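Q: Convert this sequence to structure tokens.
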Amino acid sequence: MKIKSFILCSFVGCCLCSCESEDLSDWQVLKPNGTVASPEELSAGISTIFSSTPSAYDTESDWVTGDLKNRFDSGDGLYDGARGVDNDVTGGGLGPLYAGYSCGSCHRSTGRTRPSIADGGSGTGFSSMLIYITRKGGGYFPEYGRVLHDQAIYGVKPEGRLKITTTTQRYTFPDGEPYELVTPHYEITEWYADSIPMSDLRISVRQPLRHVGMGQMMALDHDLLKQIAAQSNYPEYGISGRLNYVTEKGKYQIGISGNKANHADLTVQLGFSSDLGVTNDRFPHEVGEGQSNMMGFAMSGVQVSTEDMEDVDLYMQVLGVPARRNINDPIVKKGEELFYQAKCHLCHVTTLKTRPRGSILLNNTELPQLGNQVIHPYSDFLLHDMGIELGDDYPSGLANGNEWRTTPLWGIGLQEVVNGHSYYLHDGRARNLTEAIMWHGGEGAASRTLFSRMTKEERAALIEFLQSL
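A:
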């Protein structure tokens, strides 16, 4: 069941939802009980929704009506609908090699499908993980691309299978409370072509990201991000963030999405191509084309239209962002103070603002409703060196193997409700938020140390604050 809040324009004399002004920056959000939401609760301005149900990541913003709502529903269906193997543009084109059968297969309810680290890898079924492979010296293998596709349609062999083993180390905080850290180890089995020796293989495995606040992220003021990057220098804590820059669609620009801020857009077109094996105008060639595995397989034309892909882009960008919860709870308030004391806010920046024009979708539709919004993503969207323990030796744009984009924390407290698990970090190695914090090295080491020196009750309060986001 989708829970709807109501939007009330604060302009004098304006009726509920009847203001003709395109400037929505002064609108107020009413909670389901009829009271006006406080600024602390509004994670994403007018796109904030008051839901803590399993559909909390998958509910449209309240301003999405009329034609936008029709397109949202279309994008929702395309996002979640399993693709068929035929070449029908409306719902086919899966494979011949693929990683998932739909966007929602990896991003369950636009969140994070349970990662394969919990199940030992691909096994004989679906893995839900993105598997990058390259030579250790750089470059790709002739029979494989940059992504290992561990799924395939009938008559085609998967490129290989991911196998994950783990080792567990036990530690204690200074006050004696125990905790554990799990380290994953990766290998590829069942190569369809010649086996590649581990001595020449570099593997980087990524857990799906939550698709929360995507529209607000795409509407961020880049001048503001540049300003934050210029000021992100805290030598006393070993912190110095920087922007990633990537070349996409022939343009050198700021990277903002992805684990390493390695994309300038939401990768809808790339996802259809690489993840689903569905060709489109931007990527018209089948995944694996030219590989011996594909000999005799008939290549086809474009299998998903640009209009459909833009509906998916729209769907992701106009989703509501869950409101903060329990903001007046004394433990949550204490945890928020400790969040600042641990200097978490230096990277997980609490407040940003979107640019006046909002965002522009992949086929140039504008979303001015996302403009001029004060938002609370708890991220600076910058790259930070997180230490060799989390490093993967896989560079992306300007990001080196140890650098990761600060993960936005909005919605993180509802992951267990929406997705049924509590695996965090880029590869799912952290089984809870405490482990996620204790994996912070490099520029995150100061916060890790400050957190570890807190009392058991203080650490629990800080985690309770994170659960309120």
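Residues 418 and 438 are 24 Å apart (CA to CA).
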